[in-house]
Design a protein that fits this description.
This protein has 749 residues and is of the alpha+beta class. The protein has 24 helices and 29 strands. The strands form seven sheets. Strands 2-1-5-4-3 form a five-stranded antiparallel beta sheet, sandwiched between helices. Strands 7-6-10-9-8 form a five-stranded antiparallel beta sheet, sandwiched between helices. Helix 1 packs antiparallel against helix 10.
């Protein structure tokens, strides 16, 4: 709960009108008692509403008293009559005091209006008859009393007994001062003496002892009853419970102090921009953030632009103009140049209010210094750039290394092939030649793996699709690997039970995947173990399971084994650790999945590959990529949002929609979002800010939309992470091409 909300909640409990003005004298807050009393709505008021309900005979006196107090910034207390909603007039006590910030800056007035009609009636009754006074005093909701000059109590109404627990007849022998808080006695006596000397009404706030044993705040007011000579005979007075009101005043003061402290600690300053008059009011914190002094005040928007970094001035001027014309909540980042030449980054958030005609009226906002965050982001970007350069150098090195290693293998392989085919070759040498050929093939495969890694890293790994029968691929792989299987005397079972095995795929790449899996099974299964290859059908897909009785894998390593250069467990640390990573990339490009399962070390491993059948649609086509992609459309114009959603769904995309940035962020917490298509200017936020937050949560790509082709907006869209910027009315063909391009890029990741 905010400080303002806490103040509102407390103020609504006070049985009196509570009001607050700004430095210009406008009433910016009044609690519900105002409407209950006058029947008028709660709204900002320059004083005209208030004057209309003041009794005509009291208006001039009230205005003069308030003008005197405001000129000297002093507290005031005025009594006057207010017309109630039913037309009757009530006497009110209007008390106000200036409020200031922690630094002493004048913020306006805060005050209360208490209904004192009953007290007025009581005072009138006193002049007419003691008996009528006593009758009225018994019914009054205040403590009412009469004191002699020596402080002896002559009369107390029943309310005194309710509050203090002292019976009226017993109190006659007591003293009034006995129930006043010791710290307030001297101040009360001084006020009493001043009232007697100046023939004015006594008015003092002090703490009185409650029957519970606690002290509560009361407003005591009294008038002197004088004899014909003018000598004071009695004091007639009332004490009104203002304990809740004092709590409200304390809460308001504490809230203001805490707010100032929090703003200063968070390097945040606030402002108010009267758009129609182009008048700007900054708090002291904002002056400090801009490196300026309140003694050199900012009056209008033209005063701000020279303080900004030259590159940010056009963007700021454009946005301020759009706010004034169209009325927009505003979130953006910019740089400030301090008088000493230092540059500080700021972020601004603001909320717009409109007048009764719906025109932009006031922009309330806060600016926070984000220089430290920006420095961290820059350092992170530098580190990312360094990492990318390092990866690029690594990829180039691997490509050169692979080329240099492959070149001398070519003549070796040719010579070994020639020797193997020579019938004159000595029988004792033929096994040695075959061993050499296998090792050359292994070396060539390692080189191919290195080249594939560079292609995967650069997004250039390509597949050439054709109609292929999966069972034929598996049989060919078994034929290639049978030498290793027979050498270790492994038991091999093959159950090709899938009803349909026709794929649209790259046969060479699929052979590479299954050769790697079967070869691993043979490599890591002990002498005499088993390998089982089985296929099955599963909803427009075909599944291949390759299980072995080998050394197994720790459960914690099952996901990691598909990473580049990953090797687990220790017994599997042979080769470069590239085969499974490359296999996963190939399977992904085919629109399939590859997983591993093992009960643990010594309990074997099962690798499962699922691939879409040819009848499921062109693998990797635009249609398939679209079906796997989730698009989030964010647009506050409902007809446009729904039309765009239907149009994208008709083209095969999975689409969710939101009408605001807040709703979009809630959706993104529960589901995966691949592509964001968002309007730039949304209720209470911008598409720029939404894109930044979604990118922090994951690798979301985005397309910005706007009714304007502002260069500043285009630059902000790039800075916040959008890949393209489209101007309304949308070119739907271009939008589709942009989304399809993002789909292809996402598929290659």
């Amino acid at each position: 709960m905010t400080l303002d909300e806490r103040f509102d909640d407390i103020a609504e409990l006070v049985p009196a009108i509570v009001w607050v003005t700004n430095p210009d004298g406008e009433c910016v807050y009044v609690n519900a008692r105002w409407t209950e009393l006058t029947g008028r709505p709660r709204r900002r008021d320059d004083g005209s509403d208030w004057n209309e309900v003041v009794h005509p005979d009291d208006r001039e006196r009230r205005s003069a008293a308030m003008a005197t107090a405001l000129a000297a910034l002093q507290s005031f207390s005025i009594e006057y009559r207010i017309r109630r909603a039913d037309g009757a007039y009530r006497w009110m006590l209007d008390r106000g005091a200036p409020r200031t910030s922690a630094t002493g800056a004048y913020l306006g007035y805060v005050g209360t209006v208490i209904d004192i009609t009953e007290r007025k009636v009581a005072e009138e009754s006193l002049r007419w008859s003691e008996s009528r006074f006593r009758a009225l005093a018994s019914a009054a909701p205040h403590m009412m009393w009469a004191l002699l000059l020596d402080g002896s109590i002559q009369h107390l109404n029943d309310r005194v007994e309710v509050v203090t627990g002292r019976a009226a007849k017993q109190a006659h022998i007591g003293r009034w001062l006995s129930i006043i808080h010791p710290d307030d006695v001297r101040r009360t006596l001084r006020a009493w003496a001043r009232a007697a000397r100046t023939r004015s009404v006594l008015e003092v706030e002090h703490r009185l002892l409650h029957h519970s044993g606690n002290y509560c705040w009361y407003l005591s007011r009294a008038v002197a009853h004088r004899d014909e000579s003018g000598a004071v005979r009695l004091w007639y007075g009332t004490s009104t419970d203002v304990d809740r009101l004092k709590s409200v005043e304390r809460a308001l003061r504490d809230s203001s102090e805490r707010l100032d402290t929090v703003l200063a600690a968070s390097l945040t300053g606030t402002y108010r921009w009267d758009i129609q008059r182009d008048v700007i009011d900054w708090d002291d914190n904002l002056y400090a953030l801009f490196g300026r002094s309140p003694s050199d005040p900012v009056y209008c928007t033209a005063d701000i632009l020279p303080m900004l970094h030259p590159d940010d001035r056009p963007m700021m001027a454009t946005q301020m103009g759009r706010i004034a014309r169209e009325g927009l909540d505003y979130i953006h980042e910019f740089r400030v140049i301090h008088p000493d030449g230092r540059t500080r980054w700021m972020t601004n958030r603001s909320v717009l209010t409109r007048d009764e005609q719906g025109r932009p009226s006031v922009l309330l906002g806060a600016c926070t210094d984000i220089t430290t965050r920006k420095a961290a982001e820059l350092a992170l970007q530098d580190a990312k750039n360094d990492s990318e350069r390092t990866n690029l150098a690594k990829d180039r090195f691997l490509a050169v290394l692979s080329h240099e290693l492959r070149t001398p293998l070519n003549p070796v392989k040719m010579i070994l092939d020639m020797l193997s085919g020579d019938e004159r070759l000595d029988a004792e040498l033929r096994p040695l030649i075959d061993t050499a050929r296998r090792n050359v093939d292994v070396q060539a495969r390692l080189i191919d793996d290195l080249l594939d890694v560079t292609r995967i890293a650069s997004g250039k790994l390509r597949i050439h699709r054709a109609e292929v029968r999966l069972h034929d691929v598996l049989r060919n792989v078994v034929d290639v690997c049978c030498g290793e299987i027979d050498q270790k005397q492994l038991r091999l079972s093959i159950d090709l039970d899938a009803a349909d095995d026709v794929l649209i795929a790259d046969p060479e790449r699929l052979t590479q995947v299954f050769w790697n899996l079967v070869r691993n099974a043979a490599k890591f299964t002990p002498q005499g173990g088993t390998i089982a290859i089985a296929t099955s059908s599963a909803r427009e897909r075909v599944r291949v399971d390759i299980a072995d009785s080998g050394i197994g894998i720790e459960p914690d390593d099952l996901q990691r084994i598909f990473d580049l250069f990953a090797q687990a467990p220790a017994e599997r640390r042979q080769g470069l650790g590239l085969g499974l990573a490359i296999s996963r990339s190939i399977v992904d490009l085919h629109g399939g999945t590859i997983t591993a399962h093992s009960e643990g070390p010594g309990r074997g491993t099962t690798f499962s590959v699922e691939l879409p059948l040819a009848g499921a649609g062109p693998i990797g086509s635009d249609g398939q990529r679209r079906s796997r992609l989730r698009v989030l459309v964010v647009e506050d114009d409902l007809p446009l949002r729904e039309a765009l959603t239907m149009w994208l769904e008709a083209r095969g995309y999975a689409v969710v929609q939101a009408g605001s940035a807040e709703e979009a962020l809630r959706l993104a917490q529960g589901i995966r979002i691949d592509v964001l298509v968002s309007d730039i200017y949304l209720p209470n936020a911008t598409g720029f800010d939404l894109m930044r937050q979604l990118r922090r949560q994951g690798g979301v790509m985005g397309i910005a939309m706007s009714g304007s082709g502002d260069a500043a907006d285009v630059a902000l869209s790039v800075e916040s992470g959008f890949t393209s910027y489209l101007v309304k009315p949308l070119d739907l063909d271009r939008l589709l091409n942009e989304i399809d391009d993002l789909a292809r890029r996402i598929a290659l990741r």
